[in-house]
Amino acid sequence: MAKGYRGPSGGGKGQGNMMAQIAKLQEQMAQSQAELADETVTETAGGGAVSVTMTGNQVCRAVEIDPGLLEDADAEMLQDLVMAAVNNALDSSRKLSEEKMAPYTGMLGGLGLGF
Predict the structure, then answer these.
(1) Measured by CB atoms within 10 angstroms of the end CB, which terminus of the chain is less buried, N or C?
(2) Pick from 93, 70, 92, 91: nearest CA to 81
(3) Where are the domains of the chain?
(4) For the segment 6-23, what is each residue's pLDDT rounded down to a tens digit?
(5) Is-above-0.70 flag for pTM?
(6) What CATH number labels 38-110?
(7) Backbone angles phi, psi at 5, to 5 degrees
(8) Could you give the CA distance from residue 87 to residue 75 in angstroms, rounded to a whole number?
(9) Which residues 6+ apart lie within 8 Å of 78 measured at CB?
(10) Using CA of residue 7, residue 13, residue 16, residue 17, what is the dihedral sign?
(11) pLDDT, tens digit, for every residue of 77-110?
C-alpha cells in the first residue's frame, strides 16, 4: 500500500451535512406547500359573468355566477363559461405553485436529485 494512503473517503461529515441540508429543504418545502393552501387566485370568464376562486394547491373555493346570466337560461353557454373560468383558475393556481416551489426544485437539482 502506498505511503499516506487513507482509503476511500466514505462521506462521513460531508454526508451528514448534506442530510441536514435536505431535511431543512424538506421543512421549507412543507411550509411553502402549507402557504399555497392558503393563497388563492380568482379567474373569470364571460367578461366577469362567471368567477372561480382556487387555492394554490388546486382546491376550488368559490364559483360565482352573475344572476343576470341566468335570465337567459342558456345552459350550454353557462357550462362553457364555468369550464373556462375553472380551467383559467387551474392554470393560475399551477403557475402560483410553480413560482412558489421553483427555488426548491432548483436546489434539489443542484444536489443531484434530478429535479
Answers:
(1) N
(2) 70
(3) 38-110
(4) 555 555 566 778 788 878
(5) no
(6) 3.30.1310.10
(7) -70, 130
(8) 18
(9) 50, 65, 69, 70
(10) negative
(11) 999 999 999 999 999 999 998 888 888 777 666 5
